[in-house]
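Let's practice the habit of predicting before peeking. Look at the sequence and jot down your guess about where helices and strands might fall. Then scroll down.
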Amino acid sequence: MATAPTPPPPPFRLATSDDAAEVVQLVNAAYHGGADGRRGWTDFTGYLDRARLDEAEFLGHVLGDPARRCMLVLPREDELGGSEETEVSGGGVLVGCVVVEATATTAHEVELGMLAVRPSAL
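Done guessing? Here is the structure:
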């Protein structure tokens, strides 16, 4: 009798403190665009005079707050392709910092689709 193949791991999981350095690097690269200031999908280089996020902020403000979650997107096992922060607040949910790694190896595997908000809910 043949055994069923083992399914691949899910392409996402909640972040832990072990992910802090990698998430911080991803978020800061997206905001500052890498060494040349233009690699990221946004360019806040002229607006932010510091890193967008550091490990202490990630561990304390994101992971340390029970109302917040950080979901990681893993297109391949142990390769960070994106992250998304969610906060439950005041009877609603805030979808915060969404970052997608846009390298040649992940661009076709992770993409930011449509985010829609129903106006009557505002």
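How did you do? The chain has a mean pLDDT of 77.
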